[in-house]
Write a structure and sequence with these properties.
alpha/beta, Rossmann fold, Tyrosyl-Transfer RNA Synthetase, Structural Genomics Hypothetical 15.5 Kd Protein In mrcA-pckA Intergenic Region, Chain A, 5-stranded parallel β-sheet, 5-stranded mixed β-sheet, 23 helices, 14 strands, RNA-binding
RNA sequence: GGGGAGAUACCAGAGUGGCCAAAUGGGACGGACUGUAAAUCCGUUGCGCGAGCUUCGGAGGUUCGAAUCCUCCUCUCCCCA
């Protein structure tokens, strides 16, 4: 492998130009250039799907592997039972065991989509820290692990300091030790030398390297990625609808594609570096093109394409583009009527669907009744009425401005569907049967 | 244990007997502009087509009339021990 290794990209260089390097422990770069390194990142099983926020870490592992190293994803079966206080101002509720197991399994399946698990020495691995914690008794833990780290050291951490006023349970306080031991365990038993993570994990990671040093006089390394910031200062990875998830059941491929497509220009430059595997040259060329014609949003399109394909599939990407064109393109009212039922359903796959009865429609439904009572697209009749009067309501891509208007069978597309729209971006497919 | 302050709509925060469905700011939603962007501007933001109805921590009371006054309860914050 030694000779082959020389051809690999330098991981640190790669992270640097992509803007993915926040802190790095001295000596890390030397370690990485010396051969294949095992590095890991931990994932917190707080939900049964990873979100786009976690994607930064997933991409770190992917770059790591592509740079010739061996990535390990750790799912936090044990740490998830404790709760990471980092960045949290309040004590967390504990997850019950059943939820935890479910979340772990789901996250594991998602991680498996990104990394190569069958490429010899550099094959990715997934480990669960519950495996080494389940038989570790409390007494053993405080003797073998707790003894090496002082309270003074632990208290100095940011995550602890920030909670000195509001309070923190012993459970959360001990979190850093539990995570620190993960690193020690992987270092000791699997030869893992590097831990990566978001910058908020620096404190926890360093507890690990410290434990390795004090307990075994060993050496381990660390680096972190910066917190992703959006140009407008709001939190990355959220939309009006909440978190953007990788699980298509939570965030449809269409919505997922739209999330990236809607990135601000300023943000898309950062995102394309972080979330795609495009080379520096490719990225810079795209940026030049984008500057020439910003309205084409080339950066956003390329970004959305690559990420959607990686997370979902080529097919999902194509459907998302098609749906986007129909929903946002020109001459759409007619195009909509001409869609086959199959295409129609494919295009609107990720759009919320509502059912109403055919009989009622045949009798004619007033537009306000339709939007408020029948479909609950608006939570009250008054709101529906105001929105219609304000010009924010469309049916089958045509604006409705009259509250007296009725809908009947002649408004159906393919004799079965009505495309209801609230504002520019919120679509509802009403199925009538 | 003693003393003080407070609880108002999604949030922050005015209002201290009628002019209050409740200022203002933020957020959210919609419109115009545009590039499905940013910035800006406009509108909406308890329910009802409307008369009107139900809201200001909870329960009672005073009054023609209460978010506003009184009583009790619950909770939060601060200071002293």
């Amino acid at each position: 492998m030694g000779a082959k290794f020389g051809n690999m990209k330098n991981f640190i260089e790669e992270l640097r130009w992509r803007g993915m390097l926040q802190d790095i422990m001295p000596g890390t770069e030397e370690l990485l250039s010396s051969g294949v390194v095992k590095g890991y990142i931990g994932f917190d099983p707080t939900a049964d799907s990873l979100g786009v926020g976690n994607l930064v870490q997933v991409m770190s592992l992917l770059h790591f592997q592509q740079c010739g190293h061996k990535p390990i994803a750790l799912v936090g079966g044990a740490t998830g039972m404790v709760g990471d206080p980092s960045g949290k101002s309040l004590e967390r509720n504990l997850l019950n065991e059943e939820t935890l197991q479910h979340n772990l399994a789901c996250q594991k399946a998602q991680l498996e989509k990104f990394l190569d698990f069958n490429c010899g020495e550099r094959s990715a691995e997934i480990v669960n820290n519950y495996d080494w914690f389940k038989n570790f008794s409390f007494l053993e833990f405080i003797r073998d692990v707790g003894k090496h780290i002082t309270i003074n050291y632990m208290l100095a951490k940011d995550s602890v300091q920030k909670r000195m006023d509001s309070g923190m349970s012993f459970t959360e306080f001990s979190y850093q030790l539990v995570q620190g031991y993960d690193f020690y365990y992987l270092w000791k038993h699997q030869g893992v030398r590097l831990q990566m993570g978001g910058s908020d994990q620096w404190g926890n990671i360093v507890t690990g390297t410290e434990l390795i040093r004090r307990k075994d006089a060993g050496e381990a390394f660390a680096l972190t990625t910066p917190l992703i910031k959006k140009a407008d200062g709001t939190k990355f990875g959220k939309t009006e609808g909440g978190n953007v998830w990788l699980d298509p059941k939570r965030t449809s491929p269409y919505q997922f594609y739209q999330f990236w497509l809607n990135a601000a220009d300023e943000d898309s430059k950062n995102y394309i570096r972080i979330f795609t595997l495009k080379t520096k040259e490719e990225v810079e060329a795209l940026e030049t093109e984008h500057l020439k014609a910003p309205h084409l949003r080339l950066l956003q399109k390329e970004l959305a394409k690559e990420v959607t394909i990686r997370v979902h599939s080529e097919k999902d990407y194509l459907s998302a583009v098609e749906a986007s064109e129909i929903l946002f393109g020109k001459g759409t009212a007619e195009a909509l009527m001409n869609l086959s039922e199959t295409d129609l359903l494919a295009v609107f796959e990720g759009v919320p669907q509502v059912e109403i009865s055919k009989n009622e429609l045949d009798a004619g439904i007033n537009i306000v009744d339709f939007f408020a009572d029948k479909t609950n697209i608006f939570s009250s009749r008054g709101e529906a009425r105001k929105m219609i009067l304000g010009g924010g309501v469309l049916v089958n891509k045509e604006k409705i401005d009259n509250v007296e208007r009725s809908l009947n069978a002649s408004d159906l597309i393919r004799e079965k569907y009505i495309l209801a729209q609230k504002g520019k971006k919120n679509y509802f497919l009403v199925i009538c049967e």
